[in-house]
Amino acid sequence: MTLTSQVLITSQLENTLLELETLRKDEQIIEIYSKSFATKLMQGKEEELSNPKVHRIAGEKQSFTLADAKVVISKAYLASEEKMVIILVADHFSTYVQNSLLKVIEEPPKNKIFIFLTESKSAILPTIKSRLPISILSEVKEEKELGLDMKYLSLESVYEFTQIHERTDAKAMKLLIEEISKEAIRSEGYDLDEKTLSLFSNTFIALDVGSPPSFVLNTLLLKLLARKKR
Questions:
Q1: Residue 1, in any domain of the structure
Q2: Lowest-pLDDT range, 20-34, 39-53, 167-181?
Q3: How far is Cα 227 from Cα 141, in angstroms, rounded to an integer?
Q4: What's the domain range around 203?
Q5: Looking at the structure, do residues 17 and 83 belong to the same domain, yes or no?
């Protein structure tokens, strides 16, 4: 890893953030994250977090909000000759948050570096992906069988799969959709233009606003089925 503008995808958010801090030389680091992440970060790590060269800002809400994005923008436009690394941390970033940050990322102020640290690649908008390099950090973890052959997706398999996950909660559904997106891309069996790829990020928005997870899953799979190559 390096302290350059980028998106880092990892399930180990806390450890990766602390590792980024160790890379600091003369840079000023500002970390901005949600209240829920701040709670997880502090658990048993108070001594590790006593770095006077790192400024940490926790939001007031459990998720990363537009208010947090405004803090990012205000820090970015602070006049300074010192290099500043602004690290944004969240399980995922909503479309609204990413769109609000697009201009400052597209035309970054002098000496400002932006690092997104998140768990989900599929939730990152194409507009962000086109402006920042993405790195998926390799981690030792058990691969789970999806239980759905994306190469041979059909109405019947969609129905059976949604029935199996009828009671899957929103958090688990996000992980499931992440795997579906990976399998859809690997299969090379779908016309995945930019509009279709946005389906995956839209599912996260739907789950965040309280849409029933099984309904979100069913809608996504039916729309993918419509884009299946014949």
A1: no
A2: 39-53
A3: 31
A4: 150-226
A5: yes
